[in-house]
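Handout, page 2. Input:
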Amino acid sequence: MGAWNRGLFDNDSALDAVGNMFDRLGIQQYLEDADGEDIEESGEERDARHRVALDERLPSFGLDGIGAYETVILAAMAMRLGARLPDGLRSAARERLPAASEEEHYFFDEARGEVAAALSKYRDGSPWPFAQKGLFETMAEKAGMGLINEPPKGPR
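Output:
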């Protein structure tokens, strides 16, 4: 799919990076029952579960072997959820921010600026409001402006 907007989490690369980092941290993104069926969870419940897991695991998580983009995404995800941001992760994200690749990851200047601001102003426990527009919201908006193909109206 690529990028549907220019925000930090408005592209597949960012969502894949979040999933990869959660896997490395041993955090289950979605809950399943014993039969492997998804357990219904509200967005707030999932975010709270992820915040608690990040608070437990980030202080001892090593950043060796993790690329610049993934480091920035991990820090941004922790800030988005309001988790405690260890000093080592904050400083690593600041240092690695310039090396995170726009071409490879759809990491646009707007997102880079948002992350830089968040890294300097973020306070643990207060979720950071990164600008984010979902894929379907973006598609609906563009359809209303005639920028994407719309299905024909009326009977076929």
